[in-house]
Specification:
homodimer, about 220 residues, alpha+beta, Nucleoside Triphosphate Pyrophosphohydrolase, three-stranded antiparallel beta sheet, 10 strands, DNA-binding
Chain lengths: ~220, ~220
DNA sequence: TCAAAAGTGTTCTATCTACACCCATGT
DNA sequence: ACATGGGTGTAGATAGAACACTTTTGA
């Protein structure tokens, strides 16, 4: 939905776009990557990154490419979310939305003069282009739900992390504080994470044990 | 994906199809509505009903229209499932899959000489056209999961029903037997259903109380 | 009176919640 | 020595699972 130039539309065919809701935990809050539109339509508004699908690869590959283009990072968690039609309202089109989870340290944003990307807290979004607010809300709900019964948090964290960092990630996504002892118990009981044996010393206090996800592929409980 | 004739494809545009996984409980089993393809491609195979999206209405409206066309019934439960690309592999295209829940008594199937619809048990499907087996498996998983935390079973049942019928519906979808007493307790505790006050006498035994869903709109627990 | 399905409660187990103190380190 | 965050266990409440008898009706 980025490129606004209108090609001729054939009979019974439509524009197809892939858009990506990219999440990261930044400053202790769940944030989403948006691009500022300097061209019509919806000029001057923030929107989800995306682009036309050219049909030369699968939709998922197109979304992955978009994700790499925006973040410079590979092998990120990506999942299809929802498909909306008539996003633009001026031509028949569908947009297939995906959401992705990234660890901010691996991300290197790329600006162009056409659009400038920036992170925005999901709890304080402006009104976005193309009704993107609803899509983001849906993506947030999905991630929150999946934290409970999958290991997708691995997408938001580096290879090794402390239990405190894991908990902070959960709290940022869920938007609620969690009990430290119960959280540790529950997490270790799932078997999704295991201690690496390493420690991290970090200030004037006892060092924290480091943990890692036992697998960095999606696992359901 | 039904009509196989190829229109000219413009630049950067694609075919978009809406397809529907229509579920009903028939003969005590979860069944899905399939059409037999008498024309290429995938001639001779069973496939999910669907058709090209013409862009004149939303995708959801297109899926609803398809659903009415197939079943003759209105106001059915419909939910978007997944979008696949390259279904056909000969031209760029995406298919947006929906799933629907219908009460068999309200359905009146319509045959044409091009395709004949028929119900198939989901636990004994042949190999279908366009990799439809995977979509159906995904739809079944979704319905099973949602039985647990929503009232979507209303889509499979008439306005009034006995608790035994409700339980049979759950068992057919889940594929597992349930404890009768715990099931009744749990269902009534949700508040999703309420006794109508009517009874149904049905054979040489005590009549059953009739229940109805308190709301026939989607509700989450 | 009998067969057949409807209706109903309790016990046990597992899980979740709430909660407070000692430990290891750097300054 | 002290301030800082890391690490640990238990008791109570809640929810889920297992399980058997009485009731109402038609034949």
């Amino acid at each position: 939905m980025r490129a606004p130039d209108r090609p001729p539309i054939g009979e019974g065919v439509s524009l197809v776009a892939a858009i990506v809701v990219i999440f990261a935990i930044i400053d202790g809050a769940l944030q989403v990557l948006l691009v500022h539109r300097s061209a019509a339509p919806e000029r001057g508004r923030w929107a989800l990154p995306g682009g036309r699908w050219d049909g030369t690869a699968t939709l998922e590959q197109a979304a992955t490419a978009k994700l790499v283009e925006e973040t410079g990072a590979h092998d990120l968690y990506l999942e299809q979310l929802f498909t909306v039609s008539h996003l633009d309202a001026t031509q028949p089109g569908v947009a297939v939305a995906y959401f992705a989870l990234v660890e901010p340290a691996r991300v290197c944003l790329r600006s162009s003069d056409e659009w400038v990307p920036a992170w925005h807290r999901v709890d304080a979004l402006p009104e976005l282009a193309f009704r993107n607010n609803a899509l983001i809300a849906q993506a947030v709900a999905r991630v929150r739900a999946k934290l409970d019964y999958t290991n997708i948090a691995y997408g938001l964290l580096p290879d090794a992390f402390t239990l405190r960092e894991l908990q902070a990630t959960y709290e940022a996504v869920l938007g609620t504080p969690l009990d430290r002892r119960n959280f540790r118990k529950r997490m270790l009981a799932t078997g999704l994470i295991a201690a690496t044996g390493e420690q991290r010393r970090d200030g004037a206090h006892r060092p924290a044990l480091l943990y890692a996800f036992t697998t960095r592929e999606p696992v359901f409980l």
